[in-house]
């Protein structure tokens, strides 16, 4: 089942617009206000408060890496590129920042709400995926630990299959992942831990 | 010396929704007449009226023609959201302004458009807030296969969940389709507490009639137990529906008072009428003289048939009163009235379930 997004409640969300003051962005500021966001225009650098913002718009034409208080591609909020020049180098740079959506300058009356929702969704999907990759990576790196735990548990003469079943039972009773359970057993085996595993 | 100002009118006087667009057209014309007859006014309007005949693709070229053949920079016009979206590029090209006098599904704020009728926080949300405590929270959603139905029902799904209810069904008919038997069968089977009707024109009329017959067979489906709710039903369509509209509910900024005789009295009429008055006030104050500058809505109220209204300068949507009416004898009895104007919130950015339905009910999280 796919989860349907609720009414996207953007009221009171904060947005930083990293762009030199220009008539091209006045429509953007007005529309953000009409949608219900608190928007702040800043140039040339994002202040520290920007780290807590819900959205960040940035100028893809005159922008440069040092404007951001985070590393390229690691923005803690959805990013929306304001693109004037479509030179490939500038697009490349905007993508390297991790732009989740974009608006073409001069920014008109339409497209802003869509850009916000697309950026929000893209950012959330990216963050969820990064979290999943991180946890899978951690689990993959524990493969050897599982092998060692199974070897330790089968030392009592039980077969490898029963040892693995025992490991799963332990993980369940301790309410931890199988990797965590394996790590505990290896630590017990090595005398790092003093408690005794009890499998039911 | 009075200043004569060309004013565009762009309403269909034939086609599917001519009842609604005709009412807006008549309202705008009546207001122009009233302004022109008012000796206290310093502006007079000369209408430049073109008729797109209900054909969506005619709106943009005719809007262009208004700007090309007259000095008009303001147009009172459009009924459907499709037609409004069609004319926006023309407005942007010519720096023109459209005054849009119909309820719509929200999620738009264009600098070239002034939205004179209700958006969802001024129609759907208060209507459901009125109905849920009185009839129950489980609804059946209907719509014509068109942006009005899709978006209004989408918001309704969230609001119904917030109220602790269930959506027992959601069905769409092609525009103009009057084959409603299947809808009726599903409604009969699911026994909702209310039906949210976002059908348009003949589909809606056919549904009211069939629902009336269902009510005669099964007492659950009477307006007292399971009403039909509409967010755009006005006096203007009641004759087309006939007695089966009786007892059902609608919401709007204005319903005709008892004793009103004008046959086109409806909020489609009064919103268009009000748009002309607001524009006349702005022109006299000199704020709308330049087509490029923002309109001077800030800090002003305008005396109109909708009451003393204001226009939010940021979103250019009207602050409006909210009235909920029950059909009785071809007009609406008011069953609820907002004590004050309600500010527009076209993106539902300030929607707060707790304000309408108290503490949000606990839900199973899977």
UniProtKB/TrEMBL annotation, chain A:
What are the recorded GO MF terms, alphabetically?
RNA binding
Span-the-membrane segments of this chain are none
Specify the ANTAR domain's residue ranges. 126-186
Q: What is this protein called?
A: ANTAR domain-containing protein
What organism is this sequence from? Jiella endophytica
Ranked from the top, the taxonomy reads: Bacteria, Pseudomonadati, Pseudomonadota, Alphaproteobacteria, Hyphomicrobiales
Automatic annotation (TrEMBL), chain B:
Pfam families, alphabetized: Peripla_BP_5
**Which InterPro entries does this chain map to?**
Peripla_BP_I
Q: Which domain of life is it from?
A: Bacteria
- Return the Gene3D superfamilies for the record: 3.40.50.2300
Membrane spanning segments where? none
Q: Which PANTHER family match?
A: ALIPHATIC AMIDASE EXPRESSION-REGULATING PROTEIN, PTHR47628
Name this polypeptide is given: N-acetylmuramoyl-L-alanine amidase
Top-down, what is the taxonomic lineage of the species of origin?
Bacteria, Pseudomonadati, Pseudomonadota, Alphaproteobacteria, Hyphomicrobiales
